Amino acid sequence: MGYSKDQLLARLKELQIEFSQYEHPIVLTVEAQAKYVGNTGGVLSKNLFLKDKKHRYYVVSALADTKVDLKVLSQRLGLGKGGLRMAPEEALGEILQVPLGCVTPFAVVNESARHVSLLLDQGFKTQKCCIFHPLSNDMSISLNAQGLDKFLESVGRNPSYIDLEANPPVGKDQPPDLAAFVPSDSPVLSDLPGKAPSSQDSTVKSVGAATNSAAAVTAKAVKPSGKAQNVKEKPVDSVRPPIPAADAGKFVEELLDRASALLLSEISEDSIKQHGGQLGDEVANNIKKGLREDLKNLATIFKNTAYTEGFYAGTRYQPKRL
Amino acid sequence: MEKTDDKNQQQEEEQVVNPWEVSAKDGGKIDYDKLIDKFGCQRLDQSFVDRVQRLTSRPPHVFLRRGVFFAHRDFNDILDAYERGEKFYLYTGRGPSSEALHLGHLIPFMFTKYLQDAFKVPLVIQLTDDEKCMWKNLSVEESQRLARENAKDIIACGFDISKTFIFSDFDYVGGAFYKNMVKVAKCVTYNKVVGIFGFTGEDHIGKVSFPPVQAVPSFPSSFPHLFSGKDNLRCLIPCAIDQDPYFRMTRDVAPRIGYHKPALIESLFFPALQGENGKMSASDPNSAIYVTDSAKDIKYKVNKHAFTGGQESIEKHRQYGANLEVDIPIKYLNFFLEDDAELEHIKKEYGAGRMLTGEVKKRLTEVLTELVERHRRARAAVTDEMVDAFMAVRPLPNMFD
């Protein structure tokens, strides 16, 4: 069950976001929409729902006049030249849960749109008001970028604005500048770390605290090295892989990796000379001392993750039929 | 006998320490001896540290060794009871006023985790989203959202989910908890609460009636799903010393409603990067190291913003040595450098002028980067489902194991 227009409007009021609303007959294009709300002082937006070859989805929301070149965007995302195309109609209903002609940044309020990446035109920020559909084509709402931000933050999204018309070179030494916007369900870059388990459903009660998948998406993206323009996301240094989740194999590998790294660093020509036959004891002690806290922390994370999986399963278990 | 804090006496330029404001006299250093004297709590001396080591069979936490946690109330009672085989539970909390947590915020949580591991006791963590909603004028949703975000950083400190219950006031107040709140509220007159917290006629009634909310997690009957039948269970509260007023009030009330007084173990304030004149401020990004700072940010902040006690020139420095009293990198190392011997060495060499400020800063940057990096990796493993599990009202059957 997707969010309805009325639920969205109520939410905006709750968050004390200022907006104007205009009802009109159903419109399917920006031109048609312009006939009804073109003179209201706000700037119209065009909204694209896109998909890449690995079935990841993107909402691109821009000022109606901004030129959006899908080929350029595809390269900037690191998807190659023809990586982006318009998403099929069914995806609109399934993922964004809005009707045809109604793509809007507000659609990310839906649980099903958790992993959809949102790209916003920086042009919105300089406009007094921008016009979007509030999950339904028979109405348009007009609000400013701060209002949109407040809403997006309340559903756990980190709003970031980009220059959609820019065409920076992408090559060996210039990594794609928008790579961070690619949802991390399947990694784009080969050294992207795997993600921790996060189930589709959410047991959270309050809407305001709903899914932080967007945060998870941006947190897992690799910061492109050095020179390239980097859109400021939630900063994450992912040079090393993150702690493995409740996967016993991965957990043990991580422990062994750390132990052997420390072991190797302890054994050198100098240390052999210094300790001779006692080197074994010395190294053993140092390893224990050096790793104890680290490994305990890893183990606690593993335990907490396993407990959480069990807890989650427990909340959904069906009692035996008697 | 508890000394009460008489707000009327604070007219001269005294230092101000209460849950909402911390400032030293004349912009100088906080005088902790005066504070202990004024509040009426006790110094935590070396004998305590030794006793903790003996009872827990493990080296005492760096914060105990270095006097970061330096004051207490009735900690000896807790230890006496523990020696007799009577357990206790831990209670700490956070006011989620911002998403950005800095190292100063983590200190009570790092210490509490150590206490949980060392004594093998359960822990309740209160997120006072209602308090921030009222004092910082946040919306209810925003404060709830911040509470959940902060919960993730708290969980990343390494608490054991089978022994920890995290709750937000907006979610949990009610039932047995609320009954205790009313019991406490009945014992504190309006005048008293004004005297302790400095409320005025202009303050709204939400503020005036908040203190019981922070008081009642000290009583086990507030958590029937955890401690039912254990009305005698003692409570130990690790916190920064500015929270003392809440718990002075609580300790005053406790015997009147038939409960044990909670014990406290209190810490110094973590100094701001720019120097020792109060707490770190979440509104000035360069006054603190945040858990979201990159290695580059940390290096920049330590190099450019840390207040040092080094002399103006290398020659002068070699001659006179550094002023360790005001040097922030040394103070930070005091908090976070585990190796006692190394810290002593650095202090000696730096104080004598043989080691330069740059070296000390470099070591500090290493230590802080490792800390923040470890925290971030742990944070990345915290999912929304894990937060839900930590915050679920559920029994903790193994909480004393």
From TrEMBL, chain A:
Gene3D superfamilies from the entry? Answer: YbaK/aminoacyl-tRNA synthetase-associated domain (3.90.960.10)
Identify the CDD domains for this entry: PrdX_deacylase
Source organism, top-level taxon: Eukaryota
Q: GO MF terms on file?
A: aminoacyl-tRNA deacylase activity
YbaK/aminoacyl-tRNA synthetase-associated domain residues are: 24-151
> Where along the sequence do coiled-coil regions lie?
none
Record-linked SUPFAM superfamilies: YbaK/ProRS associated domain (SSF55826)
Q: Which Pfam families match?
A: tRNA_edit
Family in the record: Belongs to the PRORSD1 family.
Its protein name is YbaK/aminoacyl-tRNA synthetase-associated domain-containing protein
Species of origin reads Hibiscus trionum
TrEMBL record, chain B:
EC number(s) on file: 6.1.1.2
A GO biological process of this protein is: tryptophanyl-tRNA aminoacylation
Q: Keywords in alphabetical order, please.
A: Aminoacyl-tRNA synthetase, ATP-binding, Cytoplasm, Ligase, Nucleotide-binding, Protein biosynthesis
Which parts of this chain are annotated as the region Disordered?
A: 1-20
Q: Give start-end positions of Basic and acidic residues composition bias.
A: 1-10
Q: Nucleotide-binding: is it a keyword of this entry? A: yes
Q: Which Pfam families match?
A: tRNA-synt_1b (PF00579)
Protein name as annotated: Tryptophan--tRNA ligase, cytoplasmic
